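Entry 14. Ran structure prediction on the chain below.
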Amino acid sequence: VIGTLSADHHRVIEAMTRMLPAEHLRTATSTRGFAAFLRETLPTLAPNTLVAMLSDNLRVSANGWAWEAVGVFDVHADAVAVSPRLLTAEGLVASAGEHFGFGGVSGAPDCGRHAQLDSGYHSWAFCQRTVSLVPNDFSICRRDFLLDALRTVPQTASRALWGAWLGAAAARSGGRIVFTPFAQAQYFPNHPPSSQPSQNELFDFVKRHHDLIVHDRYYSRFFDLRPGHNFTLATPRDRAEILNPLLSCLQGPIDF
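Output, structure tokens:
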């Protein structure tokens, strides 16, 4: 099942249907965002269904993406979502595993690396691994996980925080999100810039999940959270430089 973020979805659906047998594919679209679409669609799906959510500003560039996701779910019984690798139109990494707290609410420390030539910190950009959340524009999730997650995700959840809401739901339920570079999509040239969440939605997320932002499980608390300083050692003051503006809506001291 593929839900896109706008009605201009034909190029995405066409690409998907070439990669999967028709009997394994059911497509649907929504112009109101993923949350509203899923609330209507998920109850009609079988319990073991995998749901792929893809924005129409991406083209899938790895033909085996679906079978890669199936393999991840088969190997990891606690996996609830697969986080693909996203590339810019120029072939640079836009997302290769996302973590709470990096650069703000969340971010991808490997953003900007050359997708083919730079393997990143201990080559983890080329490896499957557990991460904290999924990209906003492309993910593959278990249907049952999404049903549970929607109980806590606001009706008005925006595209800008969609991956963070799902990541928080996975963390609270003990589910695993697996990044894999073998499921990959690339942005079309001149795609619209990422939208920003409203102040109300941002504060709502921070108040509910500030502990995840401050202490991400899969990105060392000794690493810097500032883009450009990724994977370098940081002091609590360095980390606070990024986190304090976010946490200004909270009362009381925060331990970094």
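Strands lie at 2-3, 50-54, 58-60, 79-87, 93-95, 99-100, 106-107, 129-131, 138-142, 176-187. Will compare against last week's run tomorrow.
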